[in-house]
Amino acid sequence: MTEAPSTSPAAARVRNLTKTYGTGQALVRALDDVSLDLLAGEFTAVMGPSGSGKSTLMHCCAALDRADSGSVFIGDQDLTRLKDKALTTLRRDQIGFVFQSFNLVPTLTAEENIKLPMSIAGRRPDGGWYDSVIDTVGLRDRLSHKPSELSGGQQQRVAVARALASRPRIVFADEPTGNLDSRSGAEVLELLRRSVDDHGQTVVMVTHDPVAASYTDRVVFLADGRVVDELREPTRERVLDVMNRMAEQTAS
């Protein structure tokens, strides 16, 4: 059921990526020769059963982990050839990351958390872009609040704003609604969708939730460390169909 590819350029490219853990009898092949383009200005979901390699793929793409072999390009830069200092700079300047657990500093206000990566880098936010991000996430009246004074959904919106504030080339979100109720999760998904539609942001999200996947432009399915299928213009029902078919193939 692979759909016709988009003509958009790639914000990130993965080529023949392989990643293993353990040795001998305990060897696990988390990624097995994966090649994939993540297209600019699109919202992409990565799905698959537990252990399929989806989080490993995201961490390798976001320069949080290194593969055994293969290449990852963010724009024209090959992450696998960069030294640690250059990787840190690229991660800071070109990549945004949203964690399932928010990862906010409890002693800082929402605004200080949003600006923290830029403060560490000694950079000031672009005023117009920063205002646009704050308005998009709907947090202007909560900027002086600390995380403990915010709901889970508001904390995740702070985390999304932090990822967007530096205007990265690509934002990775690892199960961003996993710790939220359905209403707060929908707010965060609508926010990510809006960042793509209104601001041309590129977002890649790992999720296990067919409803979350239905907010995206494209769903890539992994199984046993390989890309096995993809959908464009996904709906909850179409995603469930693919997942059920994958489960049947695994069972047989």
TrEMBL record:
Pfam families: ABC_tran
Keyword ATP-binding tagged: yes
Gene3D superfamilies: P-loop containing nucleotide triphosphate hydrolases
Molecular function GO labels: ATP binding; ATP hydrolysis activity; transmembrane transporter activity
Leader sequence segment: none
Residue ranges occupied by any ABC transporter domain in the UniProt entry: 12-249
Superkingdom assignment: Bacteria
Entry protein name: ATP-binding cassette domain-containing protein
Protein source organism: Nocardioides agri
